[in-house]
Design goal:
single chain, mainly alpha, Son of Sevenless (SoS) protein, Chain S, domain 2, 2 domains, two-stranded antiparallel ribbon, 2 strands
């Protein structure tokens, strides 16, 4: 099945509508998955597709990219999570990075001036706090009823390699021999 440019544009618009709902639900992890997918080279190279988006949609993409920007250790995302309160599904990559840096960046043992070694209690307190924060998110209850049909559909989605995705992208919007995009309506 060939998808035309306007079909791809509609799909991206729908994905951004999903992102808006995810943002309203404070579901940053799934939101990150969608934005990361849109930023993959096989998708972001689709210039004709993105050119067909309404300005409000492209502004939304930029807004979500800024929110999820890893700059300054995800400063904007951390601020948003802190301000959210209530139920949150954080982007797990931030928590895992924090725990890794705390573990790798601090010695297990500290040595006093008299040469005695003791466990680095500050390190373990930092790790305990970080792990407690993750656990707190696991206990907060989302009140969303499962939809078995949707769940089944998502579980059965095919998994394509990056090169397969890029080849599909080239089929949809091929390059001309000079390396620029052809003006096709695919």
């Amino acid at each position: 099945m060939q998808y035309r440019t306007k079909d791809r544009t509609k799909l991206i618009t729908k994905l951004l509508a999903v992102c808006k709902e995810l943002r309203d639900l404070n579901n940053y992890n799934t939101m990150m998955g969608i934005i990361a997918g849109l930023n993959m080279s096989s998708v972001s190279r689709l210039k004709q597709t993105f050119a067909g988006l309404k300005r409000a949609t492209t502004d939304m993409i930029k807004q979500y990219q800024l929110l999820l920007d890893p700059a300054a250790s995800f400063k904007t995302l951390r601020s948003s999570i802190k301000a959210s309160g209530g139920n949150i599904l954080p982007y797990i990559g931030v928590s895992l990075s924090d725990i890794t840096f705390m573990d790798d960046g601090n010695p297990d043992m500290v040595t006093t001036e008299d040469g005695e070694s003791y466990p680095n209690m500050e390190k373990y307190q930092l790790l305990t706090t970080a792990i407690s924060n993750v656990k707190q998110y696991q206990t907060a209850a989302y009140r969303i009823a499962p939809v078995p049909t949707l769940y089944g559909y998502l579980v059965e989605l095919p998994c394509l390699t990056e090169s397969m995705l890029y080849n599909l992208s080239l089929e949809r919007e091929p390059r001309d021999p000079n390396g620029t995009l052809r003006g096709s309506s695919r």
